[in-house]
Design a protein that fits this description.
This protein is mainly alpha-helical and about 575 residues long. Helix content is about 60%, strand content about 0%. It folds into two domains: about 375 residues, Up-down Bundle (Growth Hormone, Chain: A); about 80 residues, no CATH class.
């Protein structure tokens, strides 16, 4: 009997699972702020060179009183390409001749200018402080800002690779708790970073933790929820990212200093770490004593926990629940088998048989899901597909905070709608349809004239909704396709594909030099191809979560012989 089947038998969805969902989803909202943070903390404010006539009180004393700040700016700073004061040059000496009404703005020589050798003056009306202003990431150093974003993405990529395997080996709870602490410490340290390289290092470590929290949260929700409520739990998890975007906009609107904002989004994870040490249970792949107690805990009245004796003595088929729980520790993490632990009931059940074969199933599913994951737009920087939509989402004069709220609000009904589709149509058609819809919306925008702004925005909103629905579906689909012993490794590979898409996304825009429509063609084509690839995956609706590779093979055979819809009970090879 699979663990999810046992949950259905002894109580299904109870108060314990509800509290578990709340305990895991609330940190997801704050986790989203980490990925969205640099939209505000790394914003580039308007800036100009520091000049004595405007910024030195001693030099200002020698200026005639008839000259105002605008006149002093004219003689000190040349005009840039947009006819605004140049952001990276200043005059070596004041060009007083420019004050002559008959003079033109070109009455100066390039030789009369120099770089901003004394630093810059920044506009602090929107943001009182950003990392750009703190470390002068402008002009010749402007490339350092995207470098910080690349470092963050690299941390997420490495975290996905490492945390997936370690969670399968050492348990979900241990890795999740450590990731909470890592995010709290590194995020707080980033607020006090003395140098830009130190800031990048701490952001790398924070992104590492973000990847681990995302994967372990979704996997624990999958493994602790019955088949009937699985889509609901994962939709709530997905909605946490949407509400997190709105939360980020609200916090950033009230906190305009980058260091305080960094603290505001990082410090709450200390609290998450504290309650995770005692509140979050292990998944069914965890230590033997936890796996034995887990079904009893889920079945306890009120969800507060129970001992083994509280389980009913008999279940359909004549075997006691206690023996089921005792024998359920079969698909343990590898370190238990290495330690020689042999749980009760393992000998007669053939529990520790070698997991051979099934590699073709795992490779086939991983390839299709990896392709779909690379086209998804998860929280944080956008993957292929998202840049092509966000370009047309909001009017250019809309405030940054409003854009973030708009994207989050559009996601909410799309993800709620995906819950209905997941339960009605199943996983495969929902995943394929959502990706194809988003891709077609981008491709359609290639044909819509720029003057038809309302239609372009409508297509963008539909496309974003499709990606939101696809993100919800893939979080459910990934956990259901892969067995417990490999689930986190598979989720990690999917996250790596997603982060790889995030890294490649901005590079696709470089294709515009060869053709204006080429970037949109790629942004739209990738989701369409990914949706078609998802059709190669098997349907997993109402099936129990597989525990071993042998279960995956059995499901493939059993699914073909069961034509009746609804929950399907499969016998596991462990017993």
């Amino acid at each position: 009997m699979a663990f999810s089947e046992l949950l259905d038998q002894v109580g299904g969805l109870g108060r314990f699972q509800v509290l578990q969902v709340v305990a895991l989803v609330v940190p997801i909202m704050w986790l989203t702020t980490q990925s969205m943070l640099e939209n505000f903390s790394a914003a580039v404010p308007s800036h100009r060179c520091w000049v004595p006539l405007l910024d030195n009180s001693t030099a200002q004393a020698s200026v005639p009183g008839t000259l105002g700040p605008k006149d002093l700016l004219t003689v000190s700073i040349p005009l840039g390409p947009n006819q605004e004061p140049h952001q990276c040059l200043r005059f070596r000496q004041p060009q007083w001749q420019l004050l002559d009404p008959n003079a033109t703005a070109t009455n100066w020589s390039k030789a009369a200018t120099e770089p901003c050798v004394d630093g810059w003056v920044y506009d602090r009306s929107t943001f009182t402080s950003t990392i750009v202003a703190k470390w002068d990431l402008v002009c010749d150093s402007h490339a350092l800002k995207p470098m910080a974003q690349s470092v963050y993405l690299s941390g997420s990529l490495v975290g996905a690779a490492v945390c997936g395997h370690t969670s399968d080996r050492f348990g979900r709870r241990l890795v999740l708790t450590w990731n909470y602490l890592q995010m709290a410490v590194s995020g707080t340290a980033a607020a006090f970073a003395p140098t830009f390289p130190a800031y990048c290092l701490f952001r790398f470590l924070a992104a590492f933790g973000v990847a681990g929290v995302m994967m372990n949260t979704s996997t624990l929700l999958m493994e602790w929820t019955s088949a009937r409520a699985r889509a609901l739990a994962m939709t709530l998890n997905s909605l946490g990212f949407s509400f997190g975007q709105v939360l980020m906009a609200a916090v950033a609107y009230g906190v305009r200093d980058w260091a305080l904002l960094q603290l505001a989004v990082s410090a709450p994870f200390f609290l998450c770490f504290v309650y995770s040490c005692s509140a979050n249970p292990e998944g069914p792949q965890g230590p033997v004593h936890v796996a034995q107690a887990a079904p009893a805990l889920a079945a306890a009245p009120g969800g507060t926990g129970a001992w083994m004796g509280d389980l009913p003595e008999q279940r359909p088929g004549g075997r006691s629940y206690r023996s089921v729980v005792a024998g359920r520790v079969c698909p343990m993490a590898p370190h238990h088998r290495q330690a020689g632990a042999r749980p009760a009931g393992a000998a007669e059940s053939g529990c520790h048989q070698r997991e051979e074969g099934g590699g073709g199933h795992a490779d086939h599913r991983g390839l299709a899901l990896g392709h779909a994951g690379g086209a998804e737009c998860g929280p944080g920087p956008c993957q292929p597909g998202c840049p092509g939509l966000h370009t047309w989402t909001a009017p250019p004069d809309l405030h940054l905070h409003s854009v973030l709220v708009l994207i989050g609000v559009v996601d909410i009904p799309a993800k709620i709608g995906s819950l209905l589709l997941l339960n009605r149509l199943g996983r495969r058609p929902t995943q394929a349809g959502s990706l194809v819809l988003s891709g077609l919306c981008i491709l359609a925008n290639m044909l819509v004239p720029y003057e038809m702004g309302a239609l372009r925005s409508t297509l963008a909103v539909l496309g974003l909704g499709g990606l939101g629905a696809g993100f919800t579906c893939i979080s459910v689909y990934t956990g259901e396709l892969f067995p417990t012993v490999l689930r986190m490794t598979a989720v990690g590979l999917g996250q790596m594909a997603t982060r790889g898409g995030a890294i490649l996304g901005p590079l696709v825009r470089l294709l515009a030099v060869h053709g204006r429509s080429l970037p949109l063609l790629v942004y739209g084509g990738v989701p369409v191809l990914s949706g078609l690839a998802a059709l190669l995956l098997p349907e997993t609706q109402s099936l129990p979560l597989p525990d071993t590779i042998q279960d995956v093979q059995n499901q493939t055979v059993k699914k073909a012989t069961h034509s009746t819809p609804g929950p399907t009970v499969l016998k596991s090879t462990h017993f």
